[in-house]
UniProtKB/TrEMBL annotation:
Pfam families: Flagellin_arch-type. This is Flagellar protein G. It comes from Halobaculum marinum. Keywords: Cell projection, Cilium, Flagellum. It comes from the Archaea. The lineage of its organism: Archaea, Methanobacteriati, Methanobacteriota, Stenosarchaea group, Halobacteria.
Length: 150
């Protein structure tokens, strides 16, 4: 009789140890998922705050054939200030990534505040006249597409 109680006690202790280890594993995994969701929400919040609009007129000439430069104007319509840094702006022209980009605040300030307009200029190496072109601008995850004709 005493042998049966000891076996039941050992099985009970083993069941408690297994249940505790499963609960500990689940708790740590839930914490990891929670941390990942928090980090992703901060990234998404930053992207939501960054919003831009290309305000250049597609009917006007944004391409200068003499200097072979494209100049567009972009307004910060988001909730946060954006850096006036060429590294913060990705430009893709007709599927090709543009590396040498100049970003200048039109009003001459040193920060791109909400409502401010910046001038983005870059060399193209020459564009064919009477051709449609597609420019994609990415600023902190916000993507804008601008189509123009040379």
């Amino acid at each position: 009789m005493a042998g049966g109680s000891a076996a039941e006690l050992i099985l009970f202790i083993a069941a408690i140890v297994i249940a505790a280890s499963v609960a500990g594993t689940l708790t740590s995994e839930v914490d990891r998922v929670s941390d990942a969701i928090s980090a992703k929400s901060l990234d998404v919040a930053g992207e939501i705050r960054a919003d831009t609009e290309i305000v250049s007129d597609a009917g006007a000439s944004v391409y200068n054939g003499t200097t072979e430069n494209v100049t567009i104007h972009v307004r910060n319509t988001g909730a946060s200030d954006l850096p006036v840094d060429p590294g913060a702006v990705d430009v893709i022209l007709d599927g090709a990534y543009v590396t040498d980009v100049t970003v200048t605040v039109v009003d001459g300030g040193d920060a791109w505040h909400r409502g401010d307009v910046v001038r983005i200029e870059f060399a193209t190496g020459g564009l064919t006249s009477d051709t449609d072109h597609r420019l994609k601008l990415v600023v902190r995850g916000d993507e804008e597409v601008f189509r123009f004709r040379t």
